[in-house]
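INFO  loader      accepted 1 record
INFO  loader      residues=378
INFO  predictor   begin
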Amino acid sequence: MNQKSLVHVRTLASLPRRDLLKGGTALSAAAAFGLRGGSARAAGAVSLFGWQDYDAGLRVGDFLQREGIEVNLTPIGNNDEIISRLSAGGAGQIDLVTPYMGYIPFMVAAELLEPIDEAQVPNLANVPEVFRNDSNVIVNGTRYSVPFTWGSGPMAYDPAVIATPPESWMDVFKPEYAGKVGMMDDPIGNQMLAAILATDAKVPTMLTPEQLDQATAFLIRLKKEAVRQLAVSWGELANALARSEVVITFSGGEFLKKFAGDAGKEIEFTYPKEGTFAWLDSYCIAKGAPNIEAAHKCANHILDVEAQVAFGEKTFQAIVVPEAVDKLQPATRALYPYDNLAEFEQKAKFFPMPPLEPDGTHASYADWQTAYQKFKAA
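INFO  predictor   done
INFO  writer      dumping tokens
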């Protein structure tokens, strides 16, 4: 795994990677799991507020039994739910959260995260530096994140319909694909990719208001001229591909190949010439975590070789520990360019989040949210 060649800029994107509806699902589930203030908790209980199956690596082997830990997972539908939950009283009741790395500086500034005690996470030494020390996971010299999985946003397509891999994202506008394009309801990811295609911005998350308008207009055109489905889950998008309702996607994920395959459809993915984004997810300890010692143990164990393999096989997402990569099933390993990261980094890059506050030049995160709602309403 030639990790040294993977150049990174910083990171971007709220990717709803699991088969959950967006909106209030996670918050109602949080109540069901007893995350209200004053709830009784077992001494070894760890509350994990994150993506579905992000506990899979913890449940392999005898780790939980040996450490006397009980993990309760509350699934999320998007990264914003983590910030909303911690800001609305979840701090002091939740132990671990799994934000996309671009959100981490936001969360640190809002005092929603505890620093990571690296002495309690010795398995960090097994993580390649490109993932371990990205500038989002270490804020002002302090670590707030234990990264453990990554991926990107390639284009998925149906080879039974499209014999030659598409070369450009603009292929989604070809007349033969009108009404057959699928895309995820992923605000930051869609806007960033639109910015790559519709603006001259050097960094597609650092947009002037005018460039943000251009990106929004691109998305509205795409929606009106080509899109059949704005999917709320990866399972929904995979099923649309399996039914041949969708034959090409605007953005996607490497794991869509496995999801569609499970539904009986062979699909392929490609990295168009304009490029795309990459993402990196982490375990972070919530501010005031009730079981901070157990949370550190879980963060360390998620980087265990056995845990990494179990996670990769369960989710079909990329993993970060090279020794574990070598133990993946061939079909799972083949989903990601572990042996050719130098070429991959030319196609998929980490980008920063939009500015949290207006800076006089760039559109703020709030501006991006408003623009995306304009797209949704069009």
